């Protein structure tokens, strides 16, 4: 059950939100506390990209400093490099002034562990007290997160601020399965989808996609709860089926095939916006938005602890 204090804080956001947006630059004392925390499991090899994720809202929130009474408190795991701040301040005309920089407050935890930023912040009462001391008018302040979990809810309650995010009880609406369920109930056109439990279910799901739309050239497998392309993999349906046939033949003749066929292994990168590709990862969820023919298809996994990669 969501904390009633959190619900009370969230009820305030609707009333004063118009005074906090970029469209309302003016003489308003307002504070934005940025805690861009990747609050879900990711593999250790992605730790080097954490700073980039935590810092990517700089391009948005620094514009608020054009308002003379606005302030930004920016929380990160590691210190923001001064050259990066110089770059972002230089993007906004007439913003790079000593007065504007005095209203930007970086708060670094100096902690590079593979833990969510919000969790690390909650374990530091001193950092919580410092953030509270930097907030101007708490009635005109809010937290800007990356995603919503119980950590973000607790952080909002500890700081006494609303947060620009939904109640975690509604997070299922943002999953691939949840969004498709809503589309189906409301009659919104959307790609068809299939759910899989594990790697062994993927070949059958891909064959089903091909049987439904013979003209489909490819698919995309996705984590149900994945974001920012983490866990996505493009699949060339023809190449994947050919590899699987060879793999099955080798197994029938007593050979010891690799655990996953070569073209069916996860690729390390996802090409944003691409429609075709080779790469069948561990089963997650597949979508096909192929320009060469039939409508798109998805393969969704059922909920369960998985790691994006």
Draw up the topology in text.
Elements: H1 4-16, E1 30-35, H2 50-55, H3 58-61, E2 70-76, H4 82-91, H5 98-101, E3 104-108, H6 117-122, H7 125-134, E4 141-145, H8 150-159, H9 176-186, E5 192-196, H10 202-212, E6 218-221, E7 233-236, H11 237-252, E8 286-287, E9 297-301
Parallel strand pairs: 1-2, 1-4, 2-3, 5-9
Antiparallel strand pairs: 6-7, 6-8
Describe the structure.
The protein has 309 residues and is an alpha/beta fold. It folds into two domains: 4-171, 3-Layer(aba) Sandwich (Rossmann fold), CATH 3.40.50; 175-301. The chain has eleven helices and nine strands. The strands form three sheets. It has a four-stranded parallel sheet with strand order 3-2-1-4. The two termini are 31 Å apart.
Using brief descriptors, characterize the structure shown.
3-stranded antiparallel β-sheet, 2 domains, elongated, 14% strand, 11 helices, single chain, Rossmann fold, 4-stranded parallel β-sheet, disordered C terminus, alpha/beta, 309 residues
- Number of contiguous helices: 11
* Assembly of the depicted chains: single chain
CATH architecture of the largest domain: 3-Layer(aba) Sandwich
- The outline comes out as elongated
Radius of gyration: 23 Å
Q: What is the CA-CA span between the terminal residues?
A: 31 Å
Helix content: 25-40%
Strand content: 5-15%
CATH topology of the largest domain: Rossmann fold
Low-confidence stretches: 260-309
Summing up helix and strand content along with how strands pair, one would put the structural category as alpha/beta
* Structural domains: how many: 2
């Amino acid at each position: 059950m969501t904390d009633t204090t959190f619900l009370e804080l969230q009820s305030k956001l609707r009333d004063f939100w118009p005074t906090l947006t970029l469209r309302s630059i003016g003489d308003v004392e307002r504070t934005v506390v940025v805690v861009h925390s990747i609050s879900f499991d990711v593999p250790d090899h992605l730790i080097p990209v954490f700073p980039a994720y935590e810092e990517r809202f700089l391009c948005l929130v620094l514009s608020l400093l054009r308002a003379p009474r606005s302030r930004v408190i920016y929380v990160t795991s590691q210190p923001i490099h001064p050259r990066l701040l110089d770059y972002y301040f230089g993007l906004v005309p007439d913003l790079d002034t000593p007065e504007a920089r005095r209203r930007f407050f970086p708060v670094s935890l100096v902690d590079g562990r593979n833990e969510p930023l919000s969790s690390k912040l909650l374990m530091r009462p001193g950092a919580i007290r410092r953030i509270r001391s930097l907030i101007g008018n708490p009635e005109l302040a809010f937290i800007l997160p990356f995603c919503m979990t119980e950590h973000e809810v607790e952080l909002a309650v500890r700081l006494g601020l609303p947060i620009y995010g939904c109640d975690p009880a509604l997070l299922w609406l943002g999953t691939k399965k949840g969004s498709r369920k809503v589309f189906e109930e409301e009659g919104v056109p959307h790609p068809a989808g299939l759910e899989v439990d594990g790697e062994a279910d993927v070949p059958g799901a891909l064959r089903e996609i091909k049987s439904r739309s013979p003209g489909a050239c490819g698919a995309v497998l996705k984590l149900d709860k994945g974001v920012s392309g983490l866990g996505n993999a493009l699949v060339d349906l023809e190449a994947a089926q050919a590899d699987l046939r060879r793999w099955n033949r080798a197994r029938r003749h007593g050979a010891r095939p690799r655990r996953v066929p070569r073209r069916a292994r996860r690729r390390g990168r996802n090409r944003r916006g691409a429609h075709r590709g080779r790469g069948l990862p561990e089963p997650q969820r597949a979508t096909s938005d192929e320009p060469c023919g039939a409508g798109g298809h998805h393969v969704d996994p059922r909920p369960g602890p998985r790691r994006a990669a």
